[in-house]
Design a protein that fits this description.
- This protein is an alpha/beta fold and about 210 residues long.
- The longest helix is centred in the first third of the chain and has 17 residues.
- It is globular and about 45 Å long.
- Keywords: Methyltransferase, Transferase.
């Protein structure tokens, strides 16, 4: 996965510079997350975990959240630092976040769990819970369904020969994994595909106990 995103990083940043791919209702969930974090914490620091080239980090910063981004791909982090030089980004794994316990009021996993097989999901949510403060909020977005899809073709049209798989999960599966990590579901959004999307899209908001 790291090699794939390092390879496509520049084209990814060029073609996905902002939140135009998101539906308005998707962004409403991000707005609700940002509001919850700001309302419940004097220091509304948020971690954009799996930040890619930083487009959602910018969105969160625009909603009053001091944000840090982390991503496994050095190439994507280089694009994030280039395009958003006023924000803070670091290279790191979602399965071993380079931050101390209880450091953030919010953690966002925006389509960043999708390349991890089911066996690795528990570790991601455990790490997110570890860096959250008590009563902190987590937001996770993902394609809803079952199985896995080979999404390599999405990048071949830009001349990149990479191998990349996307795993699908049901909202109930994700909610169960959140609960196992000590995160209680607050609300969820599930919507039908639009445009070129092939799958339902889901967003869950959860809170640490």
């Amino acid at each position: 996965m790291r090699h794939a995103y390092d390879t496509v990083a520049e084209d990814y940043a060029r073609h996905l510079p902002d939140t135009r791919p998101e539906a308005g209702i998707d962004l409403a969930m991000v707005d609700a997350f940002a509001e919850a974090v700001r309302s419940d914490a004097g220091d509304a620091r948020v971690l954009d975990a799996g930040c890619g080239a930083g487009r959602m980090s910018r969105y969160l910063a625009g909603r009053g959240c001091p944000v840090r981004g982390v991503d496994l791909s050095p190439g994507m982090i280089a694009m994030a630092r280039r395009d958003h030089p006023d924000l803070s980004f670091a290279v790191g794994s979602l399965a071993e976040l380079p931050y101390a316990d209880g450091q953030f009021a919010g953690v966002m996993l925006w389509y960043s769990i999708i390349h991890t097989p089911p066996a690795g999901q528990a570790r991601i949510f455990a790490e997110a819970a570890r860096v959250l403060r008590p009563a902190g909020h987590l937001l996770v977005g993902f394609q809803a369904g079952q199985g896995a899809r080979d999404v390599s073709a999405a990048y071949s049209r830009f001349g990149h020969e990479v191998r990349l798989w996307r795993h699908l999960f049901t909202p109930d599966q994700v909610a169960s994994r959140l609960q196992a990590a000590g995160l209680g579901e607050v609300c969820r959004l599930v919507r039908r595909p639009r445009g070129n999307e092939r799958d339902d899209q889901a967003v869950l908001l959860a809170r640490a106990g």
